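Reviewers of the previous submission asked for a worked example of the structure-prediction workflow described in the proposal, so we include one complete record here. The input consisted solely of the amino acid sequence. No template or homolog information was supplied to the procedure at any stage.
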Amino acid sequence: MNEAVHLQEEEPKSSIIKGYELNLTTLNVWVEDENGDQTIFSQSEDGIYQSPPGFAGKVGSTYQLHITMENGEEYQSEPELLQAAPPIATIYGRYTEQPNEAGEQNVGGIQFFIDSEETDHQYFRYEWEEGYKIATPYPARYRVNEDSTLEYMDTSLGICYQERFSNELFYSTTNTSTANQIIEFPIRFISEEQQQLRTRYALLVKQFAISESAYLFYKQLNENNQSGGSLFDQQSGTVIGNITSIDNPNQNILGYFEAAGVAEKRSYFKPGDFEEFDFPRYPYNCPYSEIIETTSDSAGYFVEQGANVFLYDPFLDQVSIHTRSCTDCSFYATLTPPTYWEE
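From that input alone, the workflow returned the following structure tokens.
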């Protein structure tokens, strides 16, 4: 077992348990509360086990993970108390300079932080999800049909959306604070070399209220992987989780069953929200000088060469054409905005 697994308190919906190295031989996975009530998790895909719809953990309840393998081996976690997470008060960004991805030089960008509300809870883990709008310099609104006629499209090919999700460990504690709250916790850095802040950006942060032992597990796991940068690199030392083998208590198992309350907040940003921040350059070279002006009966040839029609004046029979990368973002992003998207 090589990944932490978690049960979280949310609006009623399915909870998920992950365990990538158990996916071929796991027979039964269930969670049991302090009253002995069991919830069976069914495998929805390799390594992913999902609870029945409507199940969610309850604050103040204790949960224990149980796993039975096809070969009869049994594993169980220590009981975990699910505690409520305090709300996230605000998400905000500030211009700073940090090393680029290659570590060769510093680049400017926006460091996003969160502040939480005051709480008696001390240990937290974080995840983020981001979505952003892409706007090409010359959004295509016309397509060339096989008979060389031009057709107006209801949806522009030049407006798209992308989403990304965190894949690193983020954890914190109020033990270093005198205010009993998380203040200026750095959650996400976006440099001026990246595209997220060109138009409109949404950042969702999830704050999990975890136990002290879970915090220490993640802290040690992260420290052991400082050089490799991945949760699944070869560990330089033994990381002790809360899952053990019933049949072989001395077996080393890298994994943690986490029961955690969660609070989340989403905020929207645009480039003008930040001082000193340079507007990110579009990732493709789209000079105005390379616009091709032609007529409708000649447009098909240029489209076959990888160009797109972005402007058409039917009265002058004049067509403006640029390369697909400057007019159509659908080859690397989606035209449909996320369900949560707000303008």
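The longest strand covers residues 123-135. We consider this example representative of the routine output the project will generate in years two and three.
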